[in-house]
Amino acid sequence: MTHHPLKAAAWMAGAIASFSAMAIAARIVLGDLTPLQLMFYRNIIAVSVLLCCFPFIGVYRLRVRQPGVQLLRHSVHFLAQYAWFVAIALIPLAQVFALEFTVPIWSLLFAAVLLGEKITAPRVAAVVLGFLGTLLIVRPGLVEPETGTMVMLAGAFAFGIAHTLTRKITLTDSPMSVLVLMNLLQLPMAALAFSFDPIWPPGWQWPCLISIALTALTAHYCLTKALSLAPANVVIPMDFLRLPLIALLAWLIFQEAVSVWVFAGAALMLVGVWINLRSESR
């Protein structure tokens, strides 16, 4: 298979920009909307966009061979996304992204349990370094645990399960079927929660909500394209560039200060992921 690292880097830049834009837009609207209200409108917009794109997607790419696993994956992913938005409303964006970097560590553990993958020395090193990196960020016993931090750690745990199930699903189903079915199944979940506390957003929030929906789609599409053009050991480390980027943007837009411990912890996680990916590429 021919690799195209420069093209992959360009697509990965699009994914990083999309994730960062989504987080900033979410921080703006979460002052007036709850996370569940935000997720309802995001899903409404995303499903509308996907319906318009159906003629170009191709029905054959939407074939579902593992409906039960798809339903479980999207339910867990819904909870993970809820935790992500809650954390965005409570703690600095750089801290949210740093804690999100524990997801590959959880994925390694769940892949061993759910998919029967081997636990190798590099994978153990990745888990240990990820755990140490998390301790540096959270610093239990030295600082009072923040609600947003605990929620984001729970969300990363759920993302780890969702990513592992995604790997299982894509053995038989296309990535496009995962993306489309995710939005179709999560819409009634969000609608049910929304029905208990409905609200119509003011006009100025709609550009942010549209941005959240569109960047959620483009982020996953760009990431998938990047992985199709270069190996994971080239693509995944690029994702850590999200941390300095979001730290800079949050400082410029929201005047958020970032602790050095956040970068130190994320650096340890990056080393762990790099060790594992380097081993896997061999």
Q: Roughly what is the average pLDDT, rounded to an integer?
A: 86
Radius of gyration: 18 Å
Secondary-structure element string:
HHHHHHHHHHHH
Structural class: mainly alpha
Model description:
There is one protein chain. The chain is mainly α and 282 residues long. It has helices at residues 5-29, 35-57, 67-90, 93-100, 103-114, 121-138, 147-169, 175-195, 206-229, 232-235, 242-254, 260-281. α3 (67-90) runs antiparallel to α7 (147-169) and α4 (93-100) packs antiparallel against α11 (242-254). The two termini are 15 Å apart.
List keywords for this structure.
282 residues; mainly alpha; 12 helices; 77% helix; globular
Compile the SSE list and pairings.
Blueprint: H1 5-29, H2 35-57, H3 67-90, H4 93-100, H5 103-114, H6 121-138, H7 147-169, H8 175-195, H9 206-229, H10 232-235, H11 242-254, H12 260-281
